[in-house]
Amino acid sequence: MIFEHLGITDAQSVSGGCIHRCYRASLKGRRVFLKVNDARFADAFAAEADGLAALRANGCTAPEPLAHGAAGAESYLIMDFLQLKPRGNYAALGRMLAALHARGQSESFGWVRDNYIGATPQKNGAHANWAEFWRERRLGPQVALAKRNGHAIDIGNVCDVLAKHRPAPSLLHGDLWGGNAGFLPNGAPVLFDPAVYFGDRETDLAMTELFGRFPPEFYSAYGPLPEGYETRKHLYNLYHLLNHLNLFGGGYLAQVKATLRLLADAR
Predict the structure, then answer these.
(1) Do residue 184 and residue 253 come from a single domain?
(2) 193 is catalytic
(3) Which listed residue (10, 50, 154, 175) is catalytic?
(4) Number of domains in the chain
(5) CB within 8 A of 81, min separation 6: which ones?
(6) Domain final position from 58, 80, 102
(7) The domain containing residue 128 runs over which residues?
(8) Which among 53, 80, 107 is the end of a domain?
(9) How far apart are CA 146 and CA 211, in angstroms?
(10) What's the rounded Cα separation, in Å, for the pair 162 and 158?
(11) Residue 68 domain-assigned (yes or no)
């Protein structure tokens, strides 16, 4: 059993997403959070640890990754255990995200390694042009995967809405919906389960609106976004809708098609 191999004691099963088996446990007297899956997830755990370290290095509160690897037929990620609650100081979360986007800067879009958006591989090869990056590294692979899954999706020229948009490459959380943010007992915000890369900061804000907006104080504290965001956010969320179509099936097809119609009308 992987617990004995890692020296884990007092493991208690807890909720932690739909992919991995998660535990609150002890390791050499320290409270830890453990994720376990079969060995093919070893790279995904390495990518998650990389993303958490990047968030922490750029001023965000996030669990500290302690160890990851494979043991026999299983892989694992061990991180510091944080007692979280679902609601807290959303204004502080908005300020923390704005600081991340301002502090984490790059000369190109992408990341030093590929990672994952949910269970789907996410390619992060560098591009100097944002529209090309979004088309070739984000939408293109999802459309190809959808085709293999039996969904013929034609995105046409939807990336034309980015033709005059020249964002700076900012470090992104990359998968920022409500389930990937939490709060310490004192209300301070925490980010976790990242899919980091350098991209347009608007993509993080867009995803906060996809499955129900964050409270108004979050957006007020973050600050204003450039003209055209109200259209671009649909292009950015198309990526996540396509990913949900590929992960969870045809229930998301109508939402994908509705978004494509909206973007076609906006051009």
Answers:
(1) yes
(2) no
(3) 175
(4) 2
(5) 24, 25, 31, 32, 33, 63
(6) 80
(7) 90-266
(8) 80
(9) 21
(10) 8
(11) yes
Same domain, 64 and 173: no
Judge if 238 and 159 occupy the same domain: yes
Is 129 within the bounds of a domain? yes
Q: Which long-range contacts (CB under 8 A, 24 or more apart) does 236-240 make?
A: 236/134, 236/200, 236/202, 236/203, 236/206, 236/207, 237/206, 237/207, 237/209, 237/210, 238/139, 238/155, 238/158, 238/263, 239/117, 239/134, 239/138, 239/139, 239/142, 239/203, 240/117, 240/207, 240/210
Residue carrying structure tokens 């890692």: 6
Contacts of 37 (CB under 8 A, 6+ apart): 19, 20, 21, 44, 45, 74, 75, 76
Instruction: Kindly tell me the number of DSSP H helices and DSSP E strands found in the chain.
Output: 9, 11
Per-residue pLDDT of the chain (267 residues), as tens digits, is: 789 889 999 999 998 667 899 999 999 999 999 999 999 999 999 999 999 999 999 999 999 999 999 999 999 999 999 999 999 999 999 999 999 999 998 999 999 999 999 999 999 999 999 999 999 999 999 999 999 999 999 999 999 999 999 999 999 999 999 999 999 999 999 999 999 999 999 999 999 999 999 999 999 999 999 999 999 999 999 999 999 999 999 999 999 999 999 999 887
The residue to which tokens 């320290």 are assigned:
30
Q: Are residues 74 and 137 in the same domain?
A: no
Query: What does the alpha-carbon distance between residue 98 and residue 60 come to, in Å, rounded to a whole number?
Result: 10
- Is pTM beyond 0.90? Reply is yes
